[in-house]
Amino acid sequence: MSGEVLSQSEIDALLSALSTGEMDAEELKKEQNERRIKSYDFRRALRFSKDQIRSLTRIHENFARLLTTYFSAKLRTYVHISVASADQIPYEEFIRSIPKMTIMNVYEVPPLDGRILMEVNPNVAYAMLDRLLGGKGTSHNKVDTLTEIETKIMSTMFERAFENFSDAWDTVAEMDPQLTEFEVNPQFLQMVSPNETVVVISLNTTIGETSGMINICIPHVVLEPILPKLSVHYWMQSEKKENQPLENAFLEKEIQKADVPIIAELGTSEISIEDFLMLDKGDVIELNQRIDSPLILKVGGIAKFIGQPGKMNKKMSIQVLDTFKGGDEDGE
């Protein structure tokens, strides 16, 4: 059923038509069932779930923040990059949607197979180049006549910028991005088959007063091995790292070297603030401990043992008689 909200007059007219026989309820149900049938284009197969698309969006929101920081420091001007959209489309459709002449950086991301494409709108790319060369950041779109120096400067800048890609993905998979190609004509670049599903993350980019898009194109075949890690269950679960036996032995050995204070408590007492303020040299405070009762031995501030005082090698000492039953049993 459609999401339209009928007015009261429309509802009255519909009920009237049903009651007078002008409209058949069975026909209405049949028409409603027919509307539920949707056409499916097998050439545009949806191979990423909505859950996975949301995860990819979160990852690239982090990537956009890292790029903003990198380019702001590199270009020394106002830079803002944010995720505009994340869509899955055939590779052929993506190639048709970008300019005929643009800046395309192709990366390999070992250990994953396949390649990833970062397409930078010429307006944005030339604004960056102008800033790097000491200009104000104005754009001069002449991408079809890039000199060797301009090509080298751009490829080096985008190669270093994409190092942030591995940081954005480190919670899901380890990657080592490597720039393998720098191209300006989309027709000369064939990463995957035309009908291969790719996810395209579009980034709104502003450099000074110039704005444009940066598109990250990731083929399905690249992400296929790690797709389970893009689910909500993976993001929500907390993996408990188990220590290895050697690590446990090392930790136990190091803990045994730790110093802990041991205090033999003679007893306690309570007095009023007034009595405390009146205390003077020679006054006696009565404790709640009998002189012939064992003392409480505290380890690290926690009562652990009971013992009796004495002397050993002309020094005051205490002999442990038993564990303190009210103490922390787990720490014995």
TrEMBL record:
Keyword Membrane: yes
Pfam families: FliM (PF02154), FliMN_C (PF01052)
Membrane topology summary: Peripheral membrane protein
Transmembrane stretches, start-end: none
Keywords: Bacterial flagellum, Cell membrane, Cell projection, Chemotaxis, Cilium, Flagellar rotation, Flagellum, Membrane
Chief location: other
The protein, known as: Flagellar motor switch protein FliM
An example Gene Ontology CC term for this record: plasma membrane
Domain Flagellar motor switch protein FliN-like C-terminal: 254-322
NCBIfam families: fliM_switch
Family as reported in the entry's similarity comment: Belongs to the FliM family.
GO biological process, one term: bacterial-type flagellum-dependent swarming motility
GO molecular function: cytoskeletal motor activity
InterPro entries, per database record: CheC-like_sf, Flag_FliM, FliN-like_C, SpoA-like_sf
Superkingdom of origin: Bacteria
Subcellular location(s) per record: Bacterial flagellum basal body; Cell membrane
